[in-house]
Specification:
alpha+beta, globular, structural constituent of ribosome, Ribosomal_uL3_bac/org-type, ribosomal protein, ribonucleoprotein, Large ribosomal subunit protein uL3m
Length: 319
């Protein structure tokens, strides 16, 4: 019995103690420390979760989708494109820029998550003849205490801290020099265009027997084997332009509060006198609100704690 050993680590231990011994392994053991996964942030009252619950926030819930949007804290403005020019710095470097002018931009109303499902500020700009406005819209303008506006837009904000009082006039000093903004506009419509103009195709050869096929697109799909159809998304001739374009992280070069203009670096989509919306960039740090607009902000509602039973008894006894 003594000749039969347990393992190489214990040659003098009998076989009956095999259960107590760890089996021999030629490969060394590696201890891998588990990676610490951060816990998801909790939002009280989100998706039916109470404030005292410790359930994590679901990634496919509506509240999680709103948190992933990274909406700006402040509302945006509506401006008109007035044209392009150039600015020169002290070294003589020329920078192309676009002039945007604000035209009687006012806050119309606010959208809250409790009533509408999201946070937003409705802004109007321009002027319109009341004779050309329908009666429901005239009632809406009267409720907002503003004149009939030509253009009305909504700007999503992150929470209730960005809500503003209706009727507040927003000027060019809402932005600051050197700030990064996002520009949204509708580019020029160019009508029906071919493949070379719309997508930049090089075209077919201009010689060697080519006849009347110089600017043609070429084959568009399979004859057999691929379903005998044109695949979705194929770049072909069609209507060009007239689409909404967003330019992110555009730098503001100058702000003129007297002319109510904002000078933005680079080009802006759209024709002259086209509508352009300007809002704080989502991918940059939000700027601080100037002191001239702090009185127009709506302070978040503070919940007052309910009175305790002891105080209630004292009030009843005093009555």
């Amino acid at each position: 019995m003594s000749a039969v050993t347990c393992c190489r680590q214990h040659p003098l231990r009998p076989l009956k103690l095999l259960i107590q011994c760890r089996p021999f392994s030629t490969t060394p053991t590696h201890f891998v420390t588990p990676r610490k996964v951060p816990k998801p942030t909790l939002l009280p009252g989100a998706a039916g979760v109470t404030e005292t619950s410790s359930l994590p926030l679901l990634h496919n819930s509506p509240v999680a989708a709103l948190l992933r949007r990274r909406d700006p804290f402040r509302t945006g403005v509506i401006a008109r494109k007035k044209g392009m020019t150039a600015l020169f710095d002290a070294k003589g470097t020329r920078t192309a820029c676009t002039i945007l002018q604000l035209d009687r931009c006012q806050v119309m109303t606010n959208k809250t998550r409790q009533d509408h499902g999201y946070w937003a500020v409705q802004v109007g700009a321009g002027e319109r003849n009341p004779k050309n406005v329908t009666k429901p819209m005239l009632g809406h303008f009267a409720k907002c205490e503003t004149s009939p506006k030509q253009v009305i837009k909504e700007f999503r904000i992150r929470d209730e801290r960005g809500l503003m009082k209706p009727g507040t006039l927003i000027n060019a000093n809402w932005f600051r020099k050197g700030q990064l903004v996002d520009l949204r506009a509708k580019n020029k419509g160019k009508g029906f265009a071919g493949g070379m103009k719309r997508h930049g195709f090089s075209g077919q050869p201009a010689s060697h027997g080519n006849s009347l096929m110089h600017r043609a697109m070429g084959s568009a799909g399979q004859s057999q084997g691929g379903g005998s159809r044109v695949l979705p998304g194929k770049r072909m001739a069609g209507r060009m332009g007239g689409e909404h374009v967003t330019i992110q992280l555009a730098k503001i070069l100058d702000v003129n509060n007297q002319l109510n203009t904002v000078v933005v670096k680079g080009c802006v989509p759209g024709p002259i006198d086209g509508i352009v919306t300007i809002q704080d960039a989502r991918l940059s740090h939000p700027p601080s609100i100037s002191t001239s607009y702090r009185k127009s902000m709506i302070s978040p509602s503070k919940k007052t704690p309910p009175p305790t039973e002891g105080k209630t008894e004292v009030l009843v006894a005093a009555a």
